[in-house]
Write a structure and sequence with these properties.
- This protein is of the alpha/beta class and 336 residues long.
- Helix content is 33%, strand content 20%.
- It contains eleven helices and 14 strands.
- The strands form three sheets. It has a seven-stranded mixed sheet with strand order 3-2-4-5-7-6-12, with helices on both faces. The protein has a five-stranded mixed sheet with strand order 9-11-10-13-14, sandwiched between helices. Strands 1-8 form a two-stranded antiparallel ribbon.
- Strand 13, helix 10 and strand 14 form a beta-alpha-beta unit.
- Helix 3 packs parallel to helix 4, helix 8 crosses helix 11 and helix 9 crosses helix 10.
- It starts with a strand and ends in a 12-residue tail after the last helix.
Length: 336
């Protein structure tokens, strides 16, 4: 086991993929000599050369358009979108071309494109640097969407995404880049947890708390805090947002009878709505309370000095747990 930050773990996973397959190429803004804004690709261009780790113009649509051409020629391009809010110029390329090409050609053309997206807030960044656009892409048939929450998954899942013949949106929580964790670099990829599965990161019996990406650690902190009040919270990291591993969530909710879903993206049309609706359909007779969502607000991402009021924190998640437990609502001061 090696102790790595999440950024270093992604870097190690990219290095292993580049070394293992000559068809893997990286492209993005400032990813070469600079090593990326967050230094995730640091050292890779000097090791593998500028023909495999390519600096591109500031043109996200051009980056994805180039990736489509590379995929047609048998390459496995890995695109870096420098910040989450910069992905929208490439939206048409992703949902109109990348997502549909395999279906449109009746399987004749594959699009093994990995799109790395640093996302979410918590770093005091400027406008367009703290978005959570994952639901847009989870809605598009033909795309796989994943989000990592710890260095081990970051290391394993970037390799799985690159090896996958489907296009993958790989969301990296930027405020978790420097968090360290143990990483097993020796286990063969075929023996690792499949990319499309969720995992239980804390077992519990009273409430199922579902999250992904940047809020998984906050959910774990909330579970520890709830245990001090005698409430046992089971925390699930979805990992895959499209498709969602509903079997893991269903098994948990049938045990606990209660569901809280938390994410940083806005509530309306978010992943929390899909998870809540699907679990209600599948677990209706097991539920002791309607599912509760704890999310960002339905507003553009606020200025840095106000983001603490937008991003779900420990207190807001604990309030959601109180609500599904029919306990006094600590934030509003009233009974739910």
């Amino acid at each position: 086991m090696t102790t790595l930050t999440m950024a270093k773990a992604i870097n190690a996973g990219l290095r292993r993929s580049l070394a293992g397959d000559d068809k893997v190429v990286l492209l993005g803004e400032d990813i070469g000599k600079l090593g990326g804004v967050y230094r995730v690709t640091d050292g890779l261009q000097s090791e593998f050369g500028a023909r495999r780790v390519m600096d591109t113009p500031l043109a996200e649509s051009g980056i994805l358009g180039t990736a489509v051409g590379l995929a047609y020629r048998g390459f496995r391009p890995v695109c870096e979108i420098q910040f989450d809010g910069f992905i929208y110029p490439a939206f048409d390329q992703i949902v109109s071309q990348v997502a549909r090409m395999h279906y449109r050609t009746r399987g004749a053309v594959k699009m093994p494109i990995t799109i790395r997206v640093p996302f979410a807030g918590g770093i005091g960044a400027a406008e367009h640097h703290s978005d959570s656009p994952e639901a847009y892409f989870a809605h598009a048939a033909g795309l796989r969407v994943v989000s990592v929450a710890d260095p081990q998954d970051a290391y394993t899942m970037i390799q799985q995404a690159i090896a996958c013949d489907d296009p993958v949106l790989y969301f990296e929580p930027k405020r978790r880049y420097h968090v360290k964790g143990e990483v097993d670099e020796l286990t063969p990829l075929d023996d690792a947890r499949p990319m499309g599965t969720a995992k239980i990161v804390m077992p519990g019996t009273d409430v199922t708390l579902v999250s992904y990406g940047p809020l998984v650690q906050t959910a774990k902190d909330a579970a520890f805090a709830a245990s001090d009040e005698g409430v046992s919270v089971e925390v699930i990291d979805l990992r895959s947002l499209a498709p969602v591993d509903f079997d893991t969530v269903v098994a948990s909710v049938r045990k606990t009878g209660r569901l809280v879903v938390t994410h940083e993206a806005a509530q309306s049309g978010g992943l929390g709505a899909e998870v809540s609706a699907s679990i209600t359909e599948r677990c209706f007779y097991y539920l002791e309370h309607a599912p509760v969502r704890v999310t960002g607000h339905d507003i553009p991402y606020p200025p840095a000095k106000l983001e603490q009021y937008h991003v779900p924190d420990l207190d807001r998640i604990l309030d959601g747990v109180d609500r599904v437990m029919d306990r006094p609502n600590s934030l509003s001061g009233v009974e739910d």
